Amino acid sequence: QAFPLPSLPRKQPTVLVACGPAQNGAIGLVCARHLRTFDYEPTIFYPKRSPDPLYRDFTTQCEKMDIPFLSYLPTEVQLINDAYNAVVDAVLGAEAEVGEGREPCAAILATLKHIRIPIVSLDVPSGWDAESGGSGGISPDVLVSLAAPKECARRFLGRQHFVAGRFLPYDVQKKFELNPPEYPGTECVVAL
Length: 192
Known about the structure:
Domain YjeF N-terminal: 1-180
Pfam family, one: YjeF_N
Oligomer: single chain
CATH superfamily: YjeF N-terminal domain
GO cellular component, one term: mitochondrion
GO molecular function: NAD(P)HX epimerase activity
Protein name: ApoA-I-binding protein 2
Distance between the termini: 16 Å
Number of helices: 5
Mean pLDDT: 84
Strand content: 15-25%
């Protein structure tokens, strides 16, 4: 529900969605579906697909929406810069169970570190520790925190930070002492 963001203009609606094998990759697949619904042209790079049935269902839904999947990520960053308006980083998330040094994530992050087009990271920028922040990870232009900003968001220096997660139950908010922002009207995303 965090997309489309005002930071993604429709004049060039092409978006590359880079998905990792864990939970953040599944969120990337859902993001690609939403982008397609709002007339963007997402392309997905999902090199290590999860065997989880829910993730397979997300993949099937994307395929049925005619969202193309890349078989490889070009290492020539100029090809990515020329072909896409933005990249959605859904490679590694807060769970970070797949370390940056492991393939295929290491190669994806090495490429994303050099592109010039905007990067929109979902929840935690890939290569960042969810608590301490970034050192050697990517530097996104936009961060979309899911449910609530993680501790690492304090070190985010990009242009825009959004929170998507109006759906948090009150007992969870109380337990973790969260103070969610006010969401205007029926919006599910708010800029911080």
